[in-house]
Design brief:
Elements: H1 6-44, H2 64-72, H3 76-104, H4 108-125
């Protein structure tokens, strides 16, 4: 006799959605980084690197608005940085999705725990920690 357990089916669907979210996020990030790398190499591949002087990232690539502006201007470094932001955002989105899934299941303890993890992630990524 079959068990009328919608919980098991729902859990499986949530796991499938989370898996798809992670796969799509990583593949999208990789595609964006690859596109940025190709653009960067096409425009700068002929220049000789100078390793005697360290040059950090340009100031416009140190914050999200600058990265987005640079990517919209179709600059290779900006597109690469945008891809890396997408890669970082993928597990953060997974945690946010898990919080929503736990809320739909009315599992308060896991909602609170997941929201705490999400808050810690957002705080640490905002640059205010350390």
């Amino acid at each position: 006799m079959k068990c009328p357990c919608p919980q098991v089916s729902d859990d499986r669907q949530i796991e499938m959605l989370i898996g798809t979210l992670l796969r799509v996020g990583v593949m999208l990030a990789a595609a964006v980084v690859l596109l940025g790398g190709v653009i960067f190499l096409v425009r700068n591949g002929h220049t000789q690197p100078d390793y005697h002087v360290f040059r950090g990232e340009p100031g416009n690539l140190e914050n999200v608005p600058g990265i987005v502006r640079s990517a919209l201007d179709v600059r290779g470094r900006g597109i690469i940085q945008l891809g890396l932001l997408l890669l970082i955002a993928t597990p953060v989105a997974r945690v946010a999705f898990a919080a929503v899934a736990f809320a739909l299941e009315k599992d308060r303890l896991y909602v609170y725990a997941t929201l705490m993890v999400l808050a810690i992630l957002v705080f640490s990524l905002s640059g205010h920690a350390g």
